[in-house]
Amino acid sequence: MSDSTDVVAISPNPGGALPPGQILGRDSLVERSWRHLEQQSVALFSPRRVGKTSVLRLLEHHAPPGWQVRVHDLERLDSAQAFAQLLYVDALELLSGRSKALARVKGFLQRVSGSVELSNVKLTLADDNWRRFLDSLFDDLEEELGQRNERLVFLWDELTLFIGDMTLRGQERDAMVLLDTLRAVRQRCSRIRMVLTGSIGFHLIKRQLDEKGYRNQPINDVRIESVPMLEPSDARPLVEALLRGISVEPQAALVDAIIAHSEGHPFVIQHLVESLRGKHDASEDDVAASLSSLLSPPSVLDLGHYASRLSKYYGEREAPALAILDALARSPGGMEVDELLEHLAMDRAIAVPAIQALRDDDYLLQRGRHLRFALDFVRRYWCEDRML
Amino acid sequence: MVSSIVAAVTTGQARFDLVLGPRGAGKSHLLGLIEGRLRKALEGSALVAGLPEELHPSSLVHLLAELLRALPADPEAGLLARQLAILAEYPPAEARDRAVGMIRAQLRGLPLVIIIENLEIVFAAIGREGQHQLRSILQTERNWSIVATSRSLSPAFSKESEPFYGTFIPRTLEPLSAEGCRAQLVRLAHASGRQELARELDTPVGLARVQTLRHVLGSYPRAMAFIFPHLHHDEPEMVERALHELAEELTPYFQEQMGRLSPGQRPIAELLAEHWTPPSVSEIARATFNTPATTSTHLKHLRADAIVRSEKLGREHFYEIVDPMFRIARAMKRNEIRATTFLRVLQGWYEFRGMDTSLLPAKMQGELRELAFSDLEGQYAHERIEPLLRKLKRRRFRQVLDDIDKIDVRHPTLAAMRIVALSYCGPEEKAFVELTTAGSSRIPILVSGVLATEQVLAGCKDPFEFLASGQGSSVGRFAAAVMAIGAALDNDERSSLAGVIVILEQVLRSSSAVVRNSATEVVVKLAVPFNLVRTHEYELCGRLIELLQPIGSAALSINLAQVAVQAWAADRIADVFRRRSGGAYALSRDLGALAKLGLLLVTQDEDVPQSVVEEIPAAFEAFFAQTDVVSGKLDIGDQVWLILIMLLIIQGPSLGAMQPTLEQMLLAQPAEVRVWWASSLHAGILHWIAAGRDLSPIAAARSLDNRVLVSFGITSTIVASSNPDVAYIRLAAPERAIVREFAAALGLEERYAALSELSCDEA
Q1: What are the b/e assignments for B504-540, b being 16+ CB within 10 Å?
Q2: What pLDDT, in 10s, does the model give residues B643-684?
Q3: ipTM at complex level
Q4: Are A53 and B140 inside 8 Å of each other by CB?
Q5: Could you tell me which residues of chain B have a Cβ less than 8 Å from any Cβ in chain A?
Q6: Were both Cys, which of A77, B330, B588, B743 would link to B273 (CB 3.0–4.6 Å)?
Q7: Parallel, antiparallel, or unpaired for β B718-720 and B316-321?
Q8: Out of A75, A82, A277, closest to residue B132 by CB
Q9: Cα-based distances in Å from A374 to A203, A302, A366, A385
């Protein structure tokens, strides 16, 4: 499916926005996501800077025939009303030129405001009118898509950040209603799919809402995928293209060193190659030195957040989580769960939820009953930072 | 950077570059250059919009409005001012979306590169919500790039919880290297017509001195530009005045900086502005009467604002003020710390000017020496050594250089490590030059530091084992050889000396003049030739002298004079001064007139051109004209040379082609100068006696025109005793003073004292 396999050279650009043709190593994830979208909506979660937005770009770029795609970054929104307004603009653009479309929405707007001005899409929806507005809007869209025999997927970047910010602003009720509304839409509208992404784990948002009395499971109908680190076979073409982008011959040993040191982390790969710019005879030592400098504070990777996030989100689970991480940090190859529990002399009822949370937050990787740090450079940093 | 941005923009990427550096690092200048080049390179394929300097937008909408102003005017859109006025009427969210729409319309599908100075200030002004919205706009537009500057990688760019985490590619404007500082000073010197200064700077010694200056003042372009106009001052008072002017110039800026700090941060910044060596958190906490936890929090913020920087050594963090000029501004306003700061600057200054700090008043010299070693006991320096040694062992020489380069510590071990690292990864000249540029008083400690470092790297216990291992850099082997000679003489292990000299020959024979200049300074500072000749190693001393360079150093002149007198006493002059080397010394422009004549006489070099011989009288006339012969006294080196010259004259034959010139010159000496010649002659005869050499040439001293001898009273002052091995000489009081100094220079005080008393008795 990819049109990127023949990409010869890409200029490294850590943190930048890449056109779809320059996003390498994500073909299988995108293919898999489109397969899932045939059946259900998808959620893509991963820590920041792993490449969710790039995956969304690829999803958009590789939309199969018969699919309409609307992409939005929800980070800028500050309310459910603003979300509704954004969708309204989308709908107007999608149905442009079809005056009879959006009949329900227009009727709704007429009821609540007494008038509709299509050229000015500013909406003021008091109370939870925005919810009814959204219901109408999605129903209109579903109907229109049926008539066209098309399907529509919304790619919503940073949904969890948006919901989390609403909660922080005291709009937790709107956040709960919005999540329930979107779930209901997914159940009701078979031609509409959603791809939800977020760098804040959904379980953290859910925990915040649960504390405010929320009891529903708003995304249990959604296929949850994580955006993983690149496998060596996926990373290789990317590293080679990036090295060519800085006019460095992609010798196998150098490529292997970059893949090994970065552990397939795309952002780290980009930075490592960027740091080799101008070094035409770059060696493995240069890669190791670059990684070391990339990790030293003040670092763009801010690995310190692995510790500070525990204080912020873990509450009473912080202490067991720290103990678990400390023990695993000392063990480069990882540990069996039972061995870990025995080593910590910790009550299973306390340890297991902490392990699960750490696994969901991408601190840990679990393979069967074996646990280890998801990234070894994070483990090394942890050892150094915690003076282990 | 420009090519990366152009490559990104023209292939559909959006790219975010951030140039980091403290005040004075040249960020604005660089950003201006980048903007200009991007405009040219991207003409027709992208728009480049430079936002105004010192921008403090009240909101994201304000920032977008400024961006609109920076774009080329769109004739179809009507007056921009009117559009912006309309925009201001909308609620913020709508105004934002409309502003983005207007920008998009102006771009007409072209990519955009936004140039922003002090992005951390702009981000602080628009707040976290504004940053979220801006990031969302950039994510949506996809082809808007940013090139910006910031004083530091503030949390807004680096914290995982912040909107722009990891978005920007940071590029730190590193402090200029010593070469970079020199290049800037040379350019300034050329631009202001100071060619002599440019030449002075453009030598390896000039470079090493810029290094010293750089440690004192900081190594950013602005520091060099500040200091350049004052580089001609050689007088301490003028330097102090220049510092005052500098402090006056800097004070308003630093006051403003201090004013911006919180009440908790200010005392910490002030404390660090008074320290030249970075203190640890606990030291800062103690000095500011605070808890370590609170101090850490303040330091964290100061570091984020690029006011201080930190370094982790072992488990401790050490903090220092980022801009060394801060120290000067602070010190010149506070009397109690002013003196030490002034002295430190003065030291850097004098070393920069290539002047000997011995020109300073004695009290100041003492204070400087104290200052040079005052950093020895710091926890900071101690913590530095271990990791650096580890890096040296792993042969990470560049890293060691970078690490040491960032430290303003004059710790001799660190300086020695730097020399070793330089010798492995740079031209050997630099390493040799650094052995000597920190001042002659530090040479012994640096040489032994270099040897100690090399011994650790090679796993050897002593210099002999190290030399035998065949390992080490050229400067390391040189240091080992020099120290080995001392050790061999001290322990009377003469058998190894010849091998050590061979190693010195291997190191120095094919080296450049610069290397040999520094090697000469080291060798004479450690008095190696004199030690060799004093222990009767004449032939080895001669081989060593052949390797040295005739530099204009008072220490070399004294060393050679001491060696010559000693060798003369043993009648081994020919072994020590071979014709070629002696002639080369005599031809050197850098040696004084007396040293040159002395060397011509000891080598009896007949190949010396007649023109050199003919220049001798004029050189002497000039020399004595500059010397206060009535009340002053000769430099000890010149005094020894003069005595030796007189010895050689009365000793007789082989003055060769020089004889008529010398006779003529001696007879022409005015009365006030002749007393110097006569006193030196008498002292020489005393030395003759002390050396136990055959006295008959004195009695028969008739090789010169008798008028010369008579004019120096030689017939009346020498009385042959019944013992043919002993002669007595009458010494006047000033002559005894000369003899005492002469004896001290040769280490023969006791023997001379006895003879001198005997002579006095006779008188």
Answers
A1: beebbeebeebbbbbbbbbbbbbbbbbbbbbbebbeb
A2: 888 777 776 655 666 777 777 777 777 777 777 777 777 777
A3: 0.90
A4: no
A5: 4, 7-8, 11-16, 93-94, 129, 132-133, 135-140, 142-143, 145, 152-153, 157-161, 163, 165-170, 303, 315, 399
A6: B330
A7: unpaired
A8: A75
A9: 18, 16, 8, 17
